[in-house]
Amino acid sequence: MDSTQVLCKKDAFVLNFEFKQYRARVNHVARERSLNLSFGRSQGPERGRNAETVTAKERVNRPILNNPFPIWGTVGFEVNTIRQLASKQLAFIGLATHKSRGSGDTNLSEISDSPPKKDITVESSYRVLCLMSHTGGGHKASAQALKDGFECIYGNSYDVNIVDLWSSHSPWPLCNMPKSYFFLVKNPWLWRLNFRCSEPKIVHETLFRGYAAIVSTQFSRVFMDYNPHLIVSVHPLMQHVPLMSLERLRDKVAKPIPFTTVVTDLTRCHPTWFHKSVLKCFVATKIVVSQALSLGLKTTQIICHGLPIRPSFSIPAGTRAYLREKLGMQKDARTVMLIGGGEGMGKITEIAEELSKRLSETHQLVIICGNNRSLVEKLSAKIWPFSVHVKGFVHNMSEYMSCCDCVITKAGPGTIAEALICGIPIILNGCIPCQEEGNIPFVLENKVGTYSEDPVIIANTVSEWFDKNDGTLEEMSARAKLLGRPDATFNIVRDLAGMILSFYH
């Protein structure tokens, strides 16, 4: 037996003895003292100093929520000791394995008692909780855009979690509420009725108080579990009830959690988007700024940066010829994109068939069907007289959109914002009542597109744009780029990060 193996056995015995001592000490503390500790770190004078003497870095790293269950404080007591013991144990096990494989001598000075670097990064990161609901693809896309923006700018310094509180943390039947979205969208008169009847403050606040009585306990547990430094809402139904739930946690919170809203509509917004208790409210246009002010928000609460769009749209993807070749398309063919939204809704088939009657072999069509797999199979099986590329849900939407000359889509705010950034003329073929209706005059008045729900008129418009070649597309493209806000996501993310730093330092 060589000296290294003797050393490993000796240290293994010492470590085992140290751990038994530590476990006995924790059990003794649990029995003899009533601990008022949070998860993993004391926030009171138990550690021999007041909260005022804690450094700024420690104040950020320590949990925000006080744990009401003492047993968890016991488990978290002196958690660094556990890490040191585990680190030593793993180090010596690794040393023995390394030596037994005959890979050469090992320098004992290289073995560190500190936790792995990955653990340090996770501990020192700020936690952001992004609230959304699965009602269409736009809210989820905005939440993901913010998460990607944090990663692009700050790496893993921010831990962003996206949560649908209604679907995942609400009892029946509230957990099925997001599913009603698709039924309402397919019946526009019901959507309009629901939208307008819930606009009065007395109506929606009464409803939200009823919801809060049912779900506040579950929502509070979610906030305690995620323990965020900042909460960001990207959905109109994720303001009032979460804020009521946070109010119930006030006595258990070491410091109030800042709550912000990122509005994902371009023009007309439901009043539930705006709550006076939010720290900041990010909006996309001056139209929404006026609406927020009329509903009681202060000018100091409102920031207008634009709509949060996936960061890939902020980076030039390349020339159209290059992108078309990369995506397997004809390099020199005029290209029109037909989008059915995240769920592949709308008159996609009818419009595609009318386009096939009017476009020639010098043109090509890209159809994005989203998550509608049956539509993908149906259109892919069809024999087309010209080049047609049928896709489902794509993650490189910025590349597909940048390689096109124009886009046909419903009046969803996200797709409009993406098209403006790419400088692509827009043909709107429909809208969700109320909240998207204002997007149609927004496009028309800024002269960046047209509107029609008739597949024949839509196909004729595309054919006219492509055949005339009189500069109409180029003029609309230039105006679209002026309206686009490619840095909106990054600006919002920087402001959110600044709020966290100023709030906890």
TrEMBL record:
Per UniProt, what is one Pfam family of this protein?
MGDG_synth
**Record GO biological process:** glycolipid biosynthetic process
Give the Glycosyl transferase family 28 C-terminal domain ranges.
Answer: 335-428
State a GO cellular component annotated for this protein. chloroplast membrane
Q: Extract the SUPFAM superfamilies matched here.
A: UDP-Glycosyltransferase/glycogen phosphorylase (SSF53756)
| Keywords assigned | Glycosyltransferase, Transferase
Q: Where is the Diacylglycerol glucosyltransferase N-terminal domain?
A: 139-309
Compartments (UniProt record) = Plastid, Chloroplast membrane
Q: What is its EC number?
A: 2.4.1.46
Question: Which InterPro entries did the record assign?
Answer: Diacylglyc_glucosyltr_N (IPR009695), Glyco_trans_28_C (IPR007235), Glycosyltransf_28_UgtP (IPR050519)
The top EC class, named as a word, is transferase
Q: Which residues cross the membrane?
A: none
One GO MF term on file is:
1,2-diacylglycerol 3-beta-galactosyltransferase activity
The answer to whether the entry has keyword Transferase is yes
- Would the keyword Glycosyltransferase turn up in this protein's UniProt record? yes
What family is this protein classified in? Belongs to the glycosyltransferase 28 family.
Q: How is this protein named in the record?
A: monogalactosyldiacylglycerol synthase
Q: Which gene encodes it?
A: MGDG
